[in-house]
Amino acid sequence: MAVIYIDEEKGIDAPDTQGSETAPFKSLAQAYLLHGADNEYKVKKKDDEEFKPAAKAAMKKAVAYSEQQRKKKEAAAKRADKEAAEQAALEATLEAAKNIKISEDPALPKAVKINIQETDPKVIGQLRKSKDEPAEGVIRVCVQGRVQRVAKQGGLVFVVLRRGLHYMQCLLSGELTKTYDVLTLARETAMEITGELWEVPAGLRAPLNRELHADYFRIVAKAPGGDDAFTNRVPEDGDPAHSSMLDLRHLTLRHEKPATVMFVRDVLEGAFNKAYRELDITKVSPPALVQTQVEGGSTLFSFDYYGEASYLTQSSQLYLETCLPSLGDVYCIEKSFRAEKSLTRRHLSEYTHIEAELDFINFDDLLSHLEHIICRVIDLVLENPTAAAAIEKYHPEFKKPQRPFMRMRYSDAIDWLREKGIKNTEGTDHVFGDDIAEAAERKMTDEIGRPILLTHFPVEIKAFYMQKEEADPRVTESVDVLMPGVGEVVGGSMRIWDLEELMAAYKREGIDPAAYFWYVDQRKYGSTPHGGYGLGTERLLAWLLKLWTVREACLYPRFMGRCTP
Ligand code: 4AD
User: Fold this and answer.
1) Is the pLDDT of residue 1 over 90?
2) Which residue's CA is the nearest one to ligand 1's atom 17?
3) Could you report how far apart the first and last alpha carbons of the chain are, in Å?
4) Rounded to the nearest whole angstrom, what is the distance from the C-alpha of residue 490 to the centroid of ligand 1?
5) Looking at residue 128, what DSSP letter applies?
6) Which residues lie in coiled coils (predicted)?
7) Scanning 124, 243, 280, 342, which has its CA 20 to 30 A from the CA of 163?
8) Is residue 11 lining ligand 1, measured as CB closer than 6 Å?
9) Distant-in-sequence, close-in-space partners of 307: CB < 8 Å, separation ≥ 6
10) How far, in Å, CA of 377 to CA of 448, rounded?
C-alpha cells in the first residue's frame, strides 16, 4: 500500500502526477481516480498544515466520483466500439456497393425524354394508379435534373430532382438503392432517372401529385458530400444578402428563394415590355458608354475611352428624348451605373433602369401614365401563376395598388414630416429645400401605407433638365413614386423644352453645354412639351417580394465594395 498525497493549495491534477509528498495531487477525487482503493490518502488543505489522512466523507465522495467516471468511460468506449463497427459495416457496404452494377433492361420500351414540368398526357402518357390496375397508356419516361433532396425510407430512396424551379419526386427501389452512387448521393448531383410516372398515393404529397418509379438511373456528374457538401457552403436557411452568401452567389442562386426572385424579375421585365407595347411605345437601346452626365457628377463612374474622358451612363433619359421625333414615345430597359458611396438597402452601383419618354404630354398626363403602367404591370405579373405564388409566399400581405395613387406636393410632405416630428439628417425640423433623406421618406411611405406620387420638388435639389412649374417657378414638374417598404422606386419629370431655358439651366448648374450639343439640338428642331421617368427594377422587385434589400433582386449585385463574383 502506498501513500498518495494531496495538497489542495499547491498540488496539480495531471495524468502524470505521482502523488508523492513533493509532487502531490490537487484533489482527492483525481488522486483516487488514478490510484484506486489499495492506497492510503493524505490531504493537506493549506500549505502550512501537515498532511493528514483523508476524512471519511471526502473519501466517500472520491470513491463515488471515481465510480461515476469509470461508468462514463465504459459507456464512451462502448459507443466508440459501436460507431467503429457501424463505420466498418458502412465501409464494407460501400465497398460491396461498388460491385453492384445496374443496367437498363433492354426488354423495356425505350424511354421518352420529358421536361420535369411537362404535364401534357400526349407527351408523358397516363399516370399509373396502382400495381393492380392495367398500365394502359403508361409510358416509360426519362427526366434529367439535379438532386434537391434525398430521403431514405424503409428500403426505398426518395430523390427530388430539380430543373430550374421545377421539381419531380422519384422513387428508387430494389437493386438501385444498393448502388454506391445512391448510397453516396449528394445534393446537386446531376442525374437522369428513367421509369414510369405514378399518381402519388392518397394522403401523400409530391410536386404535381406524381412520382417517377425508377427502373434505371444514370449519374451525369456527382456533387461532393461531407465538408464540401453544397449545403455546408451555402446553408439552406442562410440570408441570401449576407456577404458570405453573396461571395458564393453562384451557388446561392441555386436555392429556391433567390432563383424564384430571378424568375419573378424576368416576369416583371416581360410585363413592362407587354404593357409598353400595348401603349404603342417603342423599345430602343441607348448606349452605356457616354460623355454626358444626367443625375449629377458625384455618382459618375468615369473611364478612359481611347484617351477621352467618358462615363458609364447614369440614365438613358437624354438619349430617349432624342428618339421622340423619330419613333414617337419610347422606352428602354438598360443598365444604369451610379458610383454611390453609401451602403444602403436600396442603392446599387449597377442597376436595371426601366425608362420611358412621352411626347406632347403635360405633367398630369405623366402622373396618369405612371399610375397606369404600374397597375398594368402588377396585373400582368399576377397573371403568371408562379410569380403570383411567389408574391403570396414572400409578401403575403401584398395588396395591388389602387388608382388613383395619393398625390402629394413636396411642400406638403415637408409639412407632414414637421407635424410628425420626423427630423432631417441634421436632426432638425425639415424645411423647404431639404432633400428628404431615405429614412424620413421611408417612415412617411410606411406610415401612409400606399403608393404616393410625390411631386413638385424644388429646383435646387433636382437635375438640370427639369421643367419649372409655371405657377410656382421655385419648384419643378417632377415626381417620385414612393412605395411602402422601399420608398422611391420611380423618378420622373417634365423636361425643359425651351432652348434659352435649357442654356440657363446649364449655366446655373455649372455644366459645359458643349458635350450636350445633340441634346440641345432637340430644342432647336421642333421642340415639344415632353416628359418621362426612370424606374429601378430592383426596387420595384424588392417592394413586390418584400425583399430586405435590392441586393437580393440582382443576379450578381454590384455595390460599393463588391464587384465579384
Ligand atoms: O431618380 P433617378 O436618379 O432619375 C433618373 O435617373 C432619371 N434620369 C430617370 C428618367 O427620368 N428617365 O433614378 C430613377 C430611379 C430611382 O427612382 C430608383 O428607383 C432607381 O432609378 N435608382 C437606383 N436603384 C438602385 N440603385 C441606385 N443607386 C439607384 N439610383 C436610382
Assistant:
1) no
2) 490
3) 72
4) 7
5) B
6) 65-100
7) 243
8) no
9) none
10) 22
Q: Which atom of ligand 1 is nearest to the CA of 299?
A: 28
pTM for the structure as a whole? 0.86
530 DSSP assignment: E
pLDDT band (50, 70, 90) for residue 12: very high
**Which of these, 133, 107, 110, lies nearest to 194 by C-alpha position?**
110
Please choose from 351, 483, 538 the residue to mutate so as to test ligand 1's pocket, defined by most ligand atoms within 8 A of CB: 351
Q: How many whole angstroms from 555 Cα to the centroid of ligand 1?
A: 19
Query: Which atom in ligand 1 lies closest to the alpha carbon of residue 490?
Result: 17
Q: Which residues pair with 302 in a beta bridge?
A: 311
Is the per-residue pLDDT at 131 higher than 90?
Answer: no
441 lines ligand 1 (CB under 6 A): no
Extract the C-alpha cell encoding 389.
405564388
**What residue type is 565 in one-letter code?**
P
Query: In this predicted model, what pLDDT tens digit does every residue of 384-412 receive, in sequence order?
Result: 999 999 999 999 999 999 999 999 999 99
**Which residues lie closer than 8 Å to 457 by C-beta, 6 or more apart?**
410, 475, 476, 478, 480
pLDDT at position 265:
98
CA of 409 relative to ligand 1 center, distance in Å: 19
User: Would you report the helix, strand and coil content of the chain in percent, each value rounded to 5?
Assistant: 35, 25, 40
- Give the ligand 1 atom nearest the CA of 340: 28
Q: How far does CA 56 lie from the centroid of its chain?
A: 66
State if residue 42 touches ligand 1 by the CB under 6 angstroms criterion: no
State if residue 487 touches ligand 1 by the CB under 6 angstroms criterion: no
146 CB under 6 A from ligand 1? no
Residue identifier of the C-alpha nearest atom 11 of ligand 1: 533
Of 552, 542, 431, 430, which is closest to residue 488 (Cα–Cα)? 542
- Concatenated DSSP letters of 229-260: -HHHHS-TTS-TTSHHHHHTHHHHTTSHHHHH
Strands, E assignment, 154-209: 156-163, 166-172, 190-199
Distance 331 CA to ligand 1 centre (A): 14
Output the residue whose Cα is nearest ligand 1's atom 27.
347
Using alpha carbons only, give the angle 266, 269, 274 rounded to the nearest 5 degrees: 125
Confidence category of residue 419, pLDDT binned at 50, 70, 90: very high
How far is ligand 1, taken at its centre, from the CA of residue 532, in Å? 12
**In sequence order, what are the residues at sequence separation of 6 or more whose Cβ sits closer than 8 angstroms to the Cβ of residue 320?**
284, 286, 330, 331, 332, 355, 356, 357, 532
DSSP code per residue over 267-325 = HHHHHHHHHHHHTTPEE----SEES--SS-GGG-EEEEETTEEEEE-S-SHHHHHHHHH
Give, using CA atoms, the residue closest to atom 20 of ligand 1: 536
Segment 186-237, tens digit of pLDDT:
999 999 999 999 999 989 999 999 999 999 999 999 999 999 999 999 998 9
